[in-house]
Specification:
It is globular, with a radius of gyration of 34 Å. The protein contains 44 helices and 26 strands. A five-stranded mixed β-sheet has the order 3-2-6-4-5, with helices on one face. Strands 12-13-16-15-24 form a five-stranded antiparallel β-sheet, with helices on both faces.
């Protein structure tokens, strides 16, 4: 619910000259926060934040070019009042300039700014002096004496060391490559792609310079053929359009380390640090000496060493200045390059926190690059540059950051920022190490054992492979269990990290899937390698429950986690039949490291087992499970329920508990006699059956609807019960009964916990606990039934109502996981979709589900297929697999690597090859028929779903899939990168892929995502405030949240992206289009960089940006953004998706606005067809669609068609809303108006027929739509509806949010109004007599499907 005011002052420009300003100066602008702000919660709810995604903090300023290891104390504390000041910088050779700084920045950050500025970027080795005193790199500015407004800082060149010289060369190389996207395509150094600037021509922020569109310049609006509705072709090349800036200006041909390095002893004593070899663009070859004083030319050649200076004898402190001297081309091109570099948006160049890989890339030229070559061989194998001469002790770093104090906000920010930074660094190092292990680059610590059993240590990280070593998992499913255990363990680590108990430590854990192998990377507990595991474990069991030990300190620490994690403290028997008390599963081991910290590891069974996939002899599952064909034997016995499911189940039981208690209290009040007798007769058994009945599918869905109102009543009840508690024995009795009924472990309060060891093979429980064990077994069965009877149906219901809109496999998986449904239930979800009465409206979910099922089954097969391929056959094997999977060519033949080179003698098979070096060629005999047979079998075995297809073409035909979409899904899941070109999948004469088309294979990485908790709370409370109507406060809170997110995560992160999107929306509603554009542009760039250029979220962001561009009258930009969104959507899913209706309505309206009527109709009519399919022919959305089509026909003066369309709409309004509703009246007015125009036209025609050319014709009024009317319709379809309110009522509204009922009275006299007020248009716009706030807040809480954010 929203208030918009036109008279507000525009906010201060988003980021002024200094985009990288500190938070205090930049983001938390008081100016912006003054605006009474508002927001529509279009699905920008916390859900969008739960996304697995992540990023590491390269700070707000886009300047993290230097190694970001040593900035753990940058802009920690956010004190918005602590205003910045400006200092003057004097650097050699340029005019002095002033720089805005803030007191909590560090001196080092000024260094970063200078290394990024166009005129000082070539300096790296300098210090800053104030009044002749050198400033310390790591001190905060506020601690520098005498530093104030107007102080002058001198840049003083310092002598080089070998390290500084290397850093300088690296920095120069980075400047030369700053526009080159190859690092992003290759997935290195946290670079990733962004294409927004290609579509906006960089004219978003500076629209003042060339405002396009308003003068109605002829805009070319025709989209490429493949974007038009109904087009069948899905090209791949437009996914990564060629950016003009990428054809980089060549400054040098070669810059590399010379072969004469390192300098001999006597030259060292002359100050030589290293030698460089350069070939200039003019083809001049020169040799350069880096000395302590700077760079100069020497007289060496490729074969002759002569270190004497050459002429011109020019010594320069910076390599760039030297090159400027000797190469005119370098001088010219380098200047142009830097100009372009600083014009780019900082978000296009800041590093992301975690690497994002691209699944396509164009053919790139491989150029010489000294820094890359050096990185590959020397420094990076285990040494990080910014820690001189030592490896990082990851475990120490990870644990020390957790120990940082967290009493107040600044401390918590510092701590969260440090945790996040270390985690993202650790993830990057672990990924690099895992790839090195599989590529055979690391020596095993047990080299004599066979490959599968080898373990590795690299860079202080321990690596193990996902195979069942020493029959550890024999009872659980062998290798299959060993493969899933690491991800279960990672989920456990993630959970314990969130609970964050002081004194309890987990290992840094990253799981990497690469080339068909699963590698677990863990930080190393100090001392663990020196002693035997048996001695170290003082809590838990190393043999799955035969020998079990416990420890009082561990029990005390784990007890603190038991409530949030719902884990029951329980007793088990060990091999000597002694009772041992535990507060976790038996596999969870406690080890005290040499550093005295209490570590827990092997958290693979943190959550209770999933009985639907764990058949236990002699145990019956509830009837709902049996009906669905459970229990089914799974491949391994480590299936557990997701944490989301446990939470949902407990919440569900809590509601039930309250209802039961309420019922009994009411019965008591009615007649105490009856109550007591019924309780005695019924006893717990009848109560036991009660919760089960209520979890039937029907009850489940009915409960969903009632739960919102039910919760409020329940809360009241809870209070009354609590109040009675001590005094009234009867209410105590009530609570005891209710507790027993819902399976609570306590009889005086609601408390449900699970024993994770129930049904664990090999674990025995003491006799005395038999009752407890029986109850726990029942609870697990109920939870398994709850998943089937409540969670899956509620997911399908949400999809039917379009409350969630999955667009590809990843978003579907995310929607399932949020509801606690594991992916192994995908087959069950699809069965329910098929049986659903609204099957038509679930078509998109069904297609995505089938695609996901096929690609996941193919991924399982691909994994084992790849393990049998040696490195030299990798691209041949992958292209062969893709041909069998996607190409219509009936018998593709694999090229064996032996084709290229013939080896003289075949060496005997060695026992200890690196893991990825099998040399069999079994993979070459796979055929498409065999692969698809296996896929169908895998789908049946794993997901219990029968696919009806024997080839890829049948699958495409039967299920309406797209091959390009399947290629995207399989590539993302397996890490394949293919060449960007058009593949002829359907050719029956040649295979679609050759081995040249497979460019790379990347790791798929799973890791922990540390959260910024304070920022997240600010974000949530900001959303809540806006929903309650406290708009100004809401906007301030969200601005503050953005600040805190930046502080913890740095500039790039998924959550920051959601924050920016929301701010943009608020500013838009308040009429501040420039600010909306600036924020939304950042959101789009960030989404492209952090989530991927064609991620569904990016598509959404493009649509929002297009709307704000249109409002700022940048029409051609708005169109090209919408066309981009449509192209991405066609690639990711296809045309037949409910979101496509919204997109096409947007495109159609903009085209209508620029008077491209025929084109406009193609899009609007497609939108009408899609809306009718997904919302049913009687939906209000469809009525709106009819009206939009009618308007275009009216503009074309085709009144008959217009009347026909508007009548359809009128009928819907009349049946749905009744005669008297404002919408129905509007529609009937419009019909009258159309009829009059039709009659007038007919008169004119008749006049012409009668009198021929001499007819006296009154001029016809054809209406070209006004921009305002188009914008109004755009707002309506995008879920922003303005309802007029006067200024006085605005005040009232704010005051009376609490007393809503008075609004009803006030709203009568509210028609004459100047100020619009926006609300959600769902379920349907209220009459402008003033909305009932209640229903409105409801609308804000469940966003309309059309505007899922």
């Amino acid at each position: 619910m929203v208030i918009k005011t036109d008279e507000l002052p525009a906010a201060a420009p988003a980021d002024s000259a200094r985009e990288h300003g500190s938070q205090a100066g930049g983001k938390g602008r008081p100016g912006a926060a003054e605006l009474p702000s508002v927001m529509l919660l279009n699905g920008d709810c916390p859900e969008s934040l739960e996304k697995e995604g992540a990023a590491e903090p390269p700070r707000e300023n886009g300047l993290d070019e230097a190694e970001p290891g040593d900035e753990t104390t940058g802009q920690e504390v956010i004190v918005i009042q602590d205003t910045g000041f400006s200092v003057k910088i004097l650097a050699p050779g340029i005019e002095p300039f002033s720089l805005q700084v803030s007191p909590q920045e560090m001196v080092q950050e000024i260094h970063q700014v200078l290394m990024d500025r166009e005129d000082t970027c070539h300096r790296t080795c300098f210090s800053l002096h104030l009044d002749g005193n050198m400033l310390d790199h790591f001190s905060e500015l506020r601690s520098v004496e005498g530093l104030q407004e107007g102080s002058v800082l001198r840049v003083v060149e310092e002598p080089y060391t070998v390290r500084e010289a290397r850093i300088h060369v690296r920095h120069v190389r980075d400047l030369l490559k700053s526009l080159d996207p190859s690092d992003a395509f290759n997935g290195v150094d946290c670079n990733s792609l962004s294409f927004l600037s290609v579509f906006t021509d960089g004219d978003l922020g500076d629209s003042g310079k060339r405002k396009k569109g308003l003068e109605m310049d002829p805009i070319d609006c025709t989209p490429p053929e493949y974007i038009l509705p109904g087009s069948r072709e899905r090209p791949l090349c437009p996914l990564q359009p060629q950016n003009r800036d990428w054809k980089p200006l060549q400054c040098l041909k070669v810059l590399t380390m010379s072969g004469w390095n390192p300098p001999p002893g006597n030259r060292k004593m002359h100050g030589d640090l290293m030698y460089l070899f350069v070939i200039t663009a003019e083809d001049r070859q020169v040799s350069i000496t880096a000395s302590t004083r700077g760079f100069y030319l020497n007289q060496s050649t490729a074969y002759h060493f002569n270190p004497k200076p050459a002429s011109p004898r020019f010594l320069s402190h910076s390599l760039v200045e030297l090159l400027n001297q000797i190469s005119p081309t370098f001088k010219k091109n380098f200047a142009v390059l830097q100009k372009k570099r600083v014009q780019r948006h900082p978000f296009e160049r800041i590093a992301t926190p975690f690497q994002v890989y691209s699944w396509t890339a164009p053919q790139a030229e491989h150029a010489m690059d000294c820094v890359r070559a050096e990185d590959a061989y020397t420094s990076r194998l285990g040494y990080e540059e910014h820690i001189p001469g030592q490896t990082r002790d990851w475990n120490e770093e990870l644990q020390t950051t957790r120990e940082l104090p967290r009493k107040n906000l600044p401390e918590r920010l510092l701590r969260e920022r440090a945790i996040f930074k270390v985690h993202s660094d650790f993830t990057a190092a672990a990924t690099r190490g895992a790839m090195a292990v599989i590529d055979g680059n690391v020596m095993a610590i047990n080299p004599s054992e066979e490959t599968k059993m080898q373990m590795f240590i690299w860079n202080n990280i321990f690596f193990s492979l996902g195979f069942d070593v020493r029959d550890h998992y024999k009872d659980f499913g062998g290798d299959v269990a060993a493969y899933v255990a690491p991800t279960n363990d990672l989920n456990g680590v993630r959970t314990y990290n969130v609970v964050d108990v002081e004194g309890l430590y987990t290992l840094g854990t990253v799981v990497v899937d690469y080339r068909g192998y699963r590698v677990t990377a863990q930080s190393i507990i100090p001392g663990i390698l020196e002693r035997d595991q048996e001695q170290s474990v003082i809590y838990g069991s190393i043999d799955f429950g035969k020998t079990v030990v416990s420890h009082p300190r561990y029990l005390e620490l784990l007890e603190r986690t038991s409530r949030p994690l719902k884990i029951l403290r329980h007793r088990v028997l060990n091999d000597r039949d002694e009772e041992v008390e535990l507060c976790s599963s038996v596999e969870c081991k406690g080890i005290i490291g040499n550093d005295g910290r209490h570590y827990i590891l092997d958290l693979l069974r943190t959550f209770p087992p999933d009985l639907n996939f764990l058949p236990v002899p002699g145990e019956e599952l509830p009837e709902e499970c049996a009906r669905a064909g459970f229990p089914r034997a799974h491949r391994h016995k480590l299936c557990c329920l997701r944490q989301e499911l446990v939470d949902a189940f407990v919440e569900h039981r809590y509601l039930l508990f309250m209802k039961l208690a309420a019922l009994q209290l009411m019965q008591q009040k009615a007649s105490q006699l009856e109550t007591s007798s019924s309780l005695e007769n019924g006893g717990p058994s009848s109560m036991e059956s009660k919760p089960e009945d209520t979890t039937g599918p029907e009850a489940g869905s009915e409960e969903e609807s009632s739960s919102a109102s039910g919760l409020a009543k329940v809360k009241e009840l809870a209070e009354t019960i609590a109040a009675d508690d001590g005094t009234d024995p009867r209410s105590r009795e009530v609570i005891r009964n209710a507790c027993r009924a819902v399976g609570s472990i306590s009889s005086t309060a609601f408390d449900i916990r699970f024993n994770p060891d129930i049904f664990s093979p090999g674990v025995r429980f003491p006799e005395s606990c038999q009752d407890e064990v029986r109850d726990q077994k029942q609870l697990l069965k109920d939870a398994a039934a709850f998943l089937l009877s409540c969670q899956i149906p509620s997911l399908v219901k949400d999809c039917t109502e379009h409350a969630v809109l999955p667009m590809d496999g990843a978003t579907l998986a995310e929607v399932m996981r949020q509801r606690g449904i594991n992916m192994r239930y995908l087959g069950k979800v699809l069965e329910l979709v098929l049986r659903s009465p609204a099957r038509q409206q679930l078509d998109h979910v069904y297609k995505i589900g089938i695609g996901e099922l096929i690609t996941r089954s193919a991924k399982h097969i691909f994994k084992t297929y790849l393990q049998g391929v040696e490195l030299s056959g990798l691209s041949a094997a992958i292209s062969h697999f893709l041909n069998c999977f996607l190409s219509s060519y009936p018998n593709p033949v694999a090229h064996l690597p032996a084709d290229e080179l013939v080896s003289k003698k075949r060496s005997k098979r060695r026992k200890n090859r690196p893991p990825g070096a099998a040399d069999n060629t079994a993979w070459a005999v796979m055929t498409p028929q065999e692969l698809w047979r296996n896929i169908c079998q895998e789908a049946k075995n794993y997901f219990d779903f029968s696919l009806e297809c024997e080839t890829v073409d049948q699958a495409v035909e039967t299920y309406g899939l797209q091959k390009i979409t399947l290629l995207r899904e399989i590539s993302l899941k397996t890490g394949i990168q293919v060449l960007l070109k058009e593949y002829s999948f359907d050719s029956r004469h040649k295979p679609a892929f050759t081995e040249e088309d497979v460019l790379n294979i990347f790791p798929v990485v799973k890791h922990v995502n540390p959260k910024a908790s304070d920022a997240f709370h600010f974000f949530q409370s900001g959303q809540a405030k806006v929903q309650q109507g406290f708009l100004k406060e809401g906007c301030e809170l969200i601005n503050e949240a953005l600040n805190l997110f930046n502080n913890v995560y740095g500039a790039m992160h998924v959550e920051t992206c959601a924050c920016l999107r929301l701010l943009a929306r608020l500013h838009y509603i308040m009429g501040d289009y420039a600010e909306a554009l600036s924020n939304q542009q950042k959101a789009v760039l960030m989404s492209e960089r952090v989530m991927g250029i064609e991620h569904p979220n990016t598509i959404q962001e493009y649509m929002h940006l297009a709307l704000y561009c249109f409002a700022s009258s940048q029409l051609s930009t708005a169109l090209s953004l919408l066309y981009r969104a449509r192209y991405l959507m066609l690639l990711v899913f296809g045309e037949d998706h409910p979101e496509m209706a919204l997109l096409d309505n947007n495109i159609g309206l903009v085209l209508h606005g620029v008077m491209e009527y025929d084109l406009s109709l193609r899009f609007l009519e497609n939108a009408l067809a899609v809306s009718t399919k997904y919302h049913g022919p009687k939906a209000l959305k469809v009525a709106l669609s009819h009206h939009l089509v009618a308007r275009v026909y009216e503009s074309k003066a085709e009144f008959r068609s217009a009347l026909q369309q508007e009548k359809e709409g009128y009928t819907i309004y009349k049946t749905q809303l009744g005669e008297d509703h404002e919408k129905t009246k509007e529609s009937s007015e419009y019909l009258k108006c159309l009829t009059q125009q039709a009659v007038a036209l007919q008169r004119t025609m008749n006049e012409i027929y009668r009198n021929g050319s001499s007819a006296n014709i009154p001029p016809l009024k054809f209406t070209a739509p006004s921009m305002a009317s188009v914008l109004e319709q755009l707002n309506v379809i995008n879920g922003i509806l303005f309802i007029p309110l006067s200024q006085k009522d605005l005040e009232n509204l704010k005051a009376e949010v609490a007393r809503r009922h008075q609004l009803q009275e006030a709203s009568r006299n509210r028609d004459k109004a100047e100020e619009p007020m926006a609300t959600e248009p769902e379920p349907e716009p209220e009459p402008s007599g003033g909305p009932d706030l209640g229903s409105e807040l409801q609308a804000a809480k469940d966003p309309s499907p059309s505007v899922q954010g």
